[in-house]
From TrEMBL:
<dbReference type="Pfam" id="PF12911">
    <property type="entry name" value="OppC_N"/>
</dbReference>
<feature type="domain" description="ABC transmembrane type-1">
    <location>
        <begin position="173"/>
        <end position="369"/>
    </location>
</feature>
<keyword id="KW-1133">Transmembrane helix</keyword>
<feature type="transmembrane region" description="Helical">
    <location>
        <begin position="175"/>
        <end position="200"/>
    </location>
</feature>
<keyword id="KW-0813">Transport</keyword>
<comment type="similarity">
    <text>Belongs to the binding-protein-dependent transport system permease family.</text>
</comment>
<keyword id="KW-0812">Transmembrane</keyword>
<dbReference type="InterPro" id="IPR035906">
    <property type="entry name" value="MetI-like_sf"/>
</dbReference>
<feature type="transmembrane region" description="Helical">
    <location>
        <begin position="41"/>
        <end position="67"/>
    </location>
</feature>
<feature type="transmembrane region" description="Helical">
    <location>
        <begin position="239"/>
        <end position="257"/>
    </location>
</feature>
<dbReference type="Pfam" id="PF00528">
    <property type="entry name" value="BPD_transp_1"/>
</dbReference>
<feature type="transmembrane region" description="Helical">
    <location>
        <begin position="345"/>
        <end position="368"/>
    </location>
</feature>
<protein>
    <submittedName>
        <fullName>ABC transporter permease</fullName>
    </submittedName>
</protein>
<feature type="transmembrane region" description="Helical">
    <location>
        <begin position="212"/>
        <end position="233"/>
    </location>
</feature>
<keyword id="KW-0472">Membrane</keyword>
<dbReference type="InterPro" id="IPR025966">
    <property type="entry name" value="OppC_N"/>
</dbReference>
<dbReference type="InterPro" id="IPR000515">
    <property type="entry name" value="MetI-like"/>
</dbReference>
């Protein structure tokens, strides 16, 4: 008994100190962010997407060549190997590439690229090359890396006309990644607005809206994509086609979001805070968009991150089928369109490199979406 009293006497100062410390009160956003950070896959996906979008913005700076720059002497060239050890076994601190020459393969009688080990070109940083502009504002001709002419550096090889595939992938990401964002913004505005209004008013308006959504969701996506894409006039510019595809994809994606938001509004419209706002003579638009919309925002963000991958895949599919983005613009779907032939895939397997970027982006969006979905309920374990 005496030992227990002594222990309590020793702990009493610590207990008083702990009780005197201010207790941090975390907001819902802080709780969500804390739980999101614990999901390693979600953090990994967020980092990958951040890098992807930074590369898309800085495509002109990171890409060693321009999107339309053609190397006529090096069509169908395999990826260039960056080396630190030369043919004689000597180590070089600065990476380098060998000169590329064209020779005939005695077995297939086709022209192939061959390294000339007698000529080396060091890989340099901040090298001048093809002029470009970033966001239409910053103009420059300094690239992140490259080699001095007449050396060539093709990280992922060249296509059938001699254009650097790595540079085209970076420029193509500007279309493929932004078409998803633009389409999702339109789908969110339409879906969230229709879902909130339909769930709040209900009645005959809700019935009509639900039947329209069911008709939209009943059509198979690929045939509907093809039908809507063929309505685009062939005389339209690439920019007009880009916005048309974004609108098409948003039209096909707002229905599912509207139904989910409607279900949440149906459960929230009888809540105490909605009744209090109604008793305070708040107008229906104010109740819907100042009280109900914030309550569904976390769910809307989760749906957005899970919808963007379908948007990207939709653009890729349309461009792959030749009905989407067309030259002179480029996208990942346009690049994959060049790899349709089995013969091309067997001879030029590096033309499938854009597929790796598509897969990595889709997986990263799904990781982030799963992390947000779990973090949307920060009080669960």
């Amino acid at each position: 008994m005496s030992d227990t009293r002594a222990l309590a006497a020793d702990l009493e100062p610590e207990i008083e100190t702990m009780s005197a410390r201010p207790t941090a009160i975390l907001s819902v956003r802080q709780l969500m962010w804390r739980k999101f950070r614990r999901n390693r896959l979600a953090v990994f996906g967020l980092v990958v997407l951040t890098v992807m979008y930074m590369l898309a913005v800085l495509a002109g700076f990171v890409a060693p060549y321009g999107v339309r720059e053609t190397h006529q002497q090096f069509p169908r060239t395999s990826p260039t190997v960056i080396r630190f050890i030369d043919a004689d076994g000597q180590f070089h601190l600065q990476p380098f590439v060998y000169a590329i020459t064209r020779a005939m393969d005695p077995e297939t009688f086709s022209m192939v690229s061959v390294e000339d080990t007698s000529v080396r070109y060091p890989v340099e940083l901040f090298i001048r090359g093809t002029p470009y502009n970033i966001l239409g504002i910053l103009k420059s001709d300094v690239h992140l890396f490259g080699v001095e002419a007449p050396g060539k550096l093709f990280l992922l090889g060249t296509d059938t006309t001699g254009r650097d595939l790595f540079s085209r992938i970076l420029y193509g990401s500007q279309v493929s990644l932004t078409v998803g964002l633009f389409g999702v913004i339109l789908a969110l505005v339409i879906g969230a607005s229709v879902g909130i209004i339909s769930g709040y008013y209900g009645g005959w308006f809700d019935e009509i809206v639900q039947r329209i959504i069911e008709m939209t969701l009943a059509f198979p996506q690929i045939p509907l994509w093809l039908a809507l894409a063929t309505l685009v006039p062939p005389t339209w510019s690439s920019v007009q086609v880009y916005f048309a595809i974004s609108i098409v994809l948003s039209i096909l994606s707002w229905g599912a979001l509207a139904r989910q938001v409607r279900a949440m509004v149906l459960s929230l419209r009888t809540s105490d805070f909605v009744r209090a706002a109604s008793y305070a003579n708040a107008t229906p638009p104010r109740i819907m968009f100042r009280h109900l919309l914030p309550s569904t925002m976390s769910h809307i963000l989760v749906i957005a991150t899970l919808t963007i991958p379908s948007m990207i895949l939709g653009e890729t599919a349309l461009s792959f089928l030749g009905l989407g983005i067309k030259a002179p613009m480029t996208s990942w779907g346009v690049l994959l369109n060049e790899a349709q032939s089995v013969q091309v895939i067997l001879q030029l397997p590096w033309l499938l490199s854009p597929a790796a970027f598509v897969v990595l982006t889709i997986i990263s969006f799904n990781f982030v979406g799963d992390g947000l979905r779990d973090a949307a309920d920060p009080f669960s374990r």
